[in-house]
Amino acid sequence: MKRLTSVSALAFCAMAGPALADVTPQQVWDDLETYMESYGYSVEGSEALSGDALTVSDVVITMPIPEGEGSASFAMDQVVLTDRGDGTVALSFPESMPIAMKMDIEGDVVDMVLDYTHSGLQMVVSGAPEDMTYDYTADALGISLAKLMIDGEEITRDMARVMMTLTGLTGNSRTVMMSGVRNVSQTMAASDMVVDAAFNDPGSDDGGVFNVKLGGVAMSGETLIPDGLDFSDPMTLFQSGFAAAAEITHSGSAVEFAVTDNGTTNGTMTTGSGLLKFAMSDDQITYEVGNTDMVLAMAGPELPLPINAEMAETKFSFSMPLQASEEPQDAAIALTLAGFKTSEMIWNIFDPAAVLPRDPATVSADLTAKVTPFISLMDEEAMSKLETGEVVPGELNAVTLNSLLVEAAGGKITGDGAFTFDNSDTQSFDGLPRPEGTLNLSVSGAQGLIDKIIAMGLMSENDAMGARMMLSMFTVPGQAPDTATSTIEINDQGHVLANGQRIK
């Protein structure tokens, strides 16, 4: 993240002024070739210059798949780069460009050909040799499964089909070379993205059909690519200064599916806006995904009854260090499931008399932490030892609960707190590092919820008495009716106190 920020700042300064130099077709092709080779691809093609146009024929871009599991190649009959006479260069590509892949997947040899197509693609390159901008528009870009063979046996189109299409595209990509680092920043917008897939087993009635549509798709990203990177070695990749960050959003989605297996299960899911963000650098990875206004409906023979649910917001994010360190590093995790609602049919199974409030339910938590990682997540040997239990991944140094909210059926819990951990003391808490800190909780509607559960017959008065006693032991009454607060403290001696009373 630090390198991405610092180099991005330099790139921003370089981009602030106009690029006075022009570019030629040869310079643009050299830049494209160097860019692909920086990712570990080998590029082959025959170059021929005629007048204002450079034609590169029989282009093949190849890259081995890591760990000797196969290779992938991208072929184009020709690419034509034309000098437009104003210092810019126009690129034209064939309407169909096959991508061939050969892989060994757990002993199965897979040969696959994907057909990459476009309609109305126009691309113009401007700037200078060390600072090029690729602007493009397209009516449509598509990729589809053209051929699939497994161990020499062909999987025909009626057995499997996959197609993805982007329509109404605009975008640009800018490359700036500075001090041996290629900074690539990109933006892209599309009216729609559609994915259509189907699978059928010819030996049975099993199969599935899937259709996904996203509207208002937008993407932005930035990548730092130092010279001489070895993409086949993840351990050294990020240590060499490689970094990448991207954000993808959409304005709404719709999913339809039908799966046949001892009957057909079908369903739909729609959402409002959606978000996907990630970033990786030499020292940290961050990830965030979420959407709004999700509506889900499913029915089928494997389900006891139709499922209908809604969620106003879903969100999940985390960040964690990638490399081993002797000093504590930042980490975080957060989850939000807000405004959950289900159908009256499902409610009536558990609560036919409608005793419980059927307000939307919410669960959310936001935690940050300090951790000391003992191993690198990019070290395959260390990760294999972790799986066998030979090493421990690291130690927890501190946790902060920034916020907690649980709200359902008329009850509500909120909280926050912070703890540090003494990893030299694993005796006070049965093998766990000793915590020290405070947790603050507020509860409302708990007594009313217990009364309703008794009225539903799910809890007896005797059971309720025990629950009420536990609640009174760990909480003190709040100022409003049916509210309570609790302060749980763990001191430096390992004593646990609830509202000042020692309970351990």
Short synopsis of the structure:
The protein is mainly β and 504 residues long.
Describe the overall structure.
With 504 residues, the chain is mostly beta strands. The protein has 7 helices and 27 strands. The protein has a 27-stranded antiparallel sheet that branches. A hairpin with a 2-residue loop joins β10 and β11. α6 packs antiparallel against α7. The N terminus is likely disordered. It holds the Pfam family DUF2125. This is DUF2125 domain-containing protein.
SSE inventory with pairings:
Elements: H1 2-16, H2 25-38, E1 42-50, E2 53-65, E3 70-83, E4 89-92, E5 96-105, E6 108-119, E7 122-128, E8 131-150, E9 153-154, E10 160-178, E11 181-200, E12 207-226, H3 234-237, E13 243-250, E14 252-260, E15 264-271, E16 274-280, E17 284-299, E18 307-321, E19 329-342, H4 344-350, E20 361-373, H5 380-388, E21 394-408, E22 411-422, E23 434-444, H6 446-455, H7 461-474, E24 476-477, E25 483-490, E26 496-498, E27 501-502
Antiparallel strand pairs: 1-2, 2-3, 3-4, 3-5, 4-7, 5-6, 6-8, 7-8, 8-9, 8-10, 10-11, 11-12, 12-13, 12-14, 13-16, 14-15, 15-17, 16-17, 17-18, 18-19, 19-20, 20-21, 21-22, 22-23, 23-25, 24-25, 25-26, 26-27
Helix pairs in contact: 6-7
Signal peptide: 1-21
Protein name: DUF2125 domain-containing protein
Organism: Tropicibacter oceani
What attributes does this structure have?
504 residues; mainly beta; 27-stranded antiparallel β-sheet
- How much is the average pLDDT? 89
Q: From the helix content, strand content and strand pairing, which structural class follows? A: mainly beta
Beta fraction of the residues? over 45%
Main pleated sheet: 27 strands, antiparallel
| Assembly status | single chain
Low-confidence stretches: 1-20
Radius of gyration: 29 Å
Shape: globular
Total number of β-strand segments? Answer: 27
The proportion of residues forming helix, as a percent range, comes to 10-25%
Kindly report how far apart the N and C termini lie: 43 Å
How many DSSP helices? Answer: 7
